[in-house]
Amino acid sequence: MHYPKPPEIIPLDNILPDEPLLMMGAGPVPIPHKVASANSVVINHLGDTMNRVIEQVKIMARYVFQTESGHVLGVSGPASAAMEMAVCNLVEPGTKVLSIRNGLFSGRLVEMVHRVGGDVTVLEIPDKQAAAPEMVERALKEGGYKVLTVVQGETSNTVWNRHLAEICRLGKAYGCVNIVDTVCTLSTMELEMDEWGVDAVITGGQKGLSSIPGVSLIAFSDEAWARIVARNAPMSHWCLDARLADKFWNQQSYHYTAPVSGVLALHEALRLICEETLPARFRRHAVCSAALQAGIEAMGLDLLIPAEARLNSVVGISVPDGVSADRVRHIMSQLYRVEISGAFGLNILRIGQMGEQSRTHHLSRTLHALGAAMRVAGGRVDPPAGMAEMERVLASNVVRN
Ligand SMILES: *Cc1c(COP(=O)(O)O)cnc(C)c1O
């Protein structure tokens, strides 16, 4: 047998930068050392050790979701897999679904509903606005919906659905189970699954939780679970079948080999959240994001979304005419080793404020890099004024890092 010559491959060390870039975009976000080191461990996916880890992950997830639900499941896959798990288990062919669409990610839920044959009505929210409860109620009245989908924070254009609690209350009043995407917002701002009437809460690892991408979490309410158990239509997805996943997550038996290292990483990320406590964490995020926003504006740039609908977890910046967002990003990463995000199709920049991104030392480096790169790219900005204003807001709201 003659084997062709194996390919010549450059070692990773020669591809990766000597010093990692500071990840200040829309995710993935920097991970704490404890998370990174847990992610380097492999253990048996079944047995006592794993069972103890899983028990704790569920206990901590209940705290972070603010729920008493017994239906917390991990998902091997991106947050999109958790979205798909919620949709494919709760929507049968012909199920009437009302989907509130603010942008790309809430639109992804619409597409997922389509693909499983749901009868979806899209409630299109005007640009740069949060979904208004009155508008949602008008749509719900028209009728017969069994499922409502909504995103808490629309990462793609940095809109915050601030009336989420009221929208969920309406959804329940009109007979829906509420599917809520909290991928970028979970643990950065309030979310009370039980209190608000959320029936399926979706999250990923790499944003608010500051864990790794590819291992996600979902929780179903008792009402959602009752629907899943009573479901008649066949389930086309085997990996995402919640009843099968329940075997591993709640019955100590086998579904598929869990991504053990990623679950260990998630364990550590959740543990750090519990240690910090939710109120302290929400406050850290609120203060850091407010300081960053104030600094950006004081520098002479405009924020994309008006204050009443603006997301704190990801800050959107309008790029001045004649300045290229891509050029600014390029300069920031080449010269200052700070990476931020552009947007899908818009000439804007986005800076994340999720988990480890909301640390004062990261803010200084990021705002400085943004100001300096803007100037090189031809933007008329005043970086020292921005830095001074950010410092002022931080100093008047001392945040413990
Ligand atoms: C990032 C994100 C997703 C998708 O996450 P993936 O891990 O890339 O699948 C979904 N919804 C929201 C709100 C997000 O921010």
TrEMBL record:
Gene Ontology MF annotations: transaminase activity
Classification of source organism: Bacteria, Pseudomonadati, Pseudomonadota, Alphaproteobacteria, Rhodospirillales
Family stated for the protein in its record: Belongs to the class-V pyridoxal-phosphate-dependent aminotransferase family.
One Pfam family named in its UniProt record: Aminotran_5
Annotated PROSITE patterns: AA_TRANSFER_CLASS_5
Cofactor: pyridoxal 5'-phosphate
Keywords for the protein's UniProt record, in alphabetical order: Aminotransferase, Pyridoxal phosphate, Transferase
Protein name in the entry: Pyridoxal-phosphate-dependent aminotransferase family protein
Annotated Aminotransferase class V domain residues: 42-334
